Amino acid sequence: MVWNPQTYLAFADERTRPAGELLARIPDEHPARVIDLGCGPGNSTALLAHRWPRAHLEGLDSSPQMLEQAHKSGVTAHWIEGDVAAWRAHEPYDVIYSNATYQWVGDHEHLLPRLMGFVKSGGTFAFQVPHNMDAPSHALMREVAAQGPWAGKLANVREIAVLKAEAYYDVMRPHALGVDIWETEYLQVLHGEDAVYHWVSGTGLRPFVQALDGAEREGFIAAYKAKLNAAYPMRADGTTLFPFKRLFAVARK
Ligand SMILES: C[S@@+](CC[C@H](N)C(=O)[O-])C[C@H]1O[C@@H](n2cnc3c(N)ncnc32)[C@H](O)[C@@H]1O
Questions:
Q1: What are the distances in angstroms from CA 186 to CA 16, 24, 61, 67, 168?
Q2: CA distance 118 to 44
Q3: What is residue 91's three-state secondary structure?
Q4: Are 139 and 219 in contact (CB under 8 A)?
Q5: Tens-place pLDDT, residues 134-159
Q6: Beta-ladder partners of 34
Q7: How far, in Å, is the centroid of ligand 1 from the Cα of 234?
Q8: Is the pLDDT higher at 7 or at 46?
Q9: Of 60, 101, 137, 194, which has fewest CB within 10 angstroms of its CB?
Q10: What's the DSSP call for residue 175?
Q11: Closest ligand 1 atom to Cα of 44
């Protein structure tokens, strides 16, 4: 699946804010080894580098386009191309951190305990995932996908996969001293025409759009945009309000 760093970074502030809020809840003062799984263009890794300048810091991502941007970011880190689902640590880490990535990996019941096994005793495992699968932005994506002439091609498109907060607690608790989980709903203030469409086209919409081409792709986008604009109308001041819920988890080993 191809990522476009420019489209993604069009909302850099909104996307990086939860990365900082997750980081703020990690108590480690001087971790020696830190990794950012799904580092993207390096925006989340930059926060880790700033907080722990002496740590051996790695950023891992499966997208060459994102890693190219990460290299250009100037952040001091070791960039690694790899798949989180298959990744194994050669040495344990003090902090394994991930912002807005595990929803693309799935199978969290097995993924999280496996990754937590790579954290040193006394270290921290921390992640954030979007928790908005029931929001109109995603419900309408599924609705439009199922209704048009493209329905057959989109029937098996893999959507982002997240669990409920209580399920994350149950999955992580046997492998941790304690687990801190919380949710935040941001009222995102977006600007310009088709604002919510532009947001999701950088992330959740990509698997749907990439499964289509030509007139079918255009038709799908037009139908989805029309429903999105009705669900998230532009306000008198030209902004569009886009409520967006995210789930955060910090586990101490
Ligand atoms: C939404 S971006 C998050 C980027 C950054 N961490 C941030 O805080 O904004 C998700 C990133 O996860 C990466 N990704 C998705 N699936 C992956 C996988 N299985 N293994 C490694 N990286 C993956 C994508 O390439 C993308 O860069």
A1: 12, 17, 26, 28, 21
A2: 20
A3: coil
A4: no
A5: 899 999 999 999 999 999 999 888 77
A6: 57, 95
A7: 30
A8: 46
A9: 194
A10: G
A11: 8
Which amino acids bring their CB within 6 angstroms of ligand 1?
3, 15-16, 19, 38-40, 43-44, 61-63, 66, 83-85, 99-101, 104-105, 203
Cβ burial, residue 94 (10 Å; 0-12/13-18/19+): buried
pLDDT in tens, 65-74: 999 999 999 9
Q: pLDDT at position 202, please?
A: 81
Rama region for 192: left / alpha / beta (φ>0; ψ in -120 to 50; rest): left
Per the CB < 8 A criterion, the answer to whether 35 and 93 are in contact is yes
State the Rg of the chain over Cα. 19
pTM above 0.70, yes or no: yes
DSSP-assigned beta bridge partners for residue 243:
187
| One-letter identity of residue 72 | K
- Whole-number Å distance between alpha carbons of 44 and 75: 10
**Nearest protein CA to atom 1 of ligand 1, as residue:** 100
Q: Domains of the chain by range and CATH?
A: 5-252 (3.40.50.150)
Q: Which residues contact 92 (CB under 8 A, 6 or more apart)?
A: 33, 118, 119, 120, 123
161 CA to centre of ligand 1 in angstroms:
14
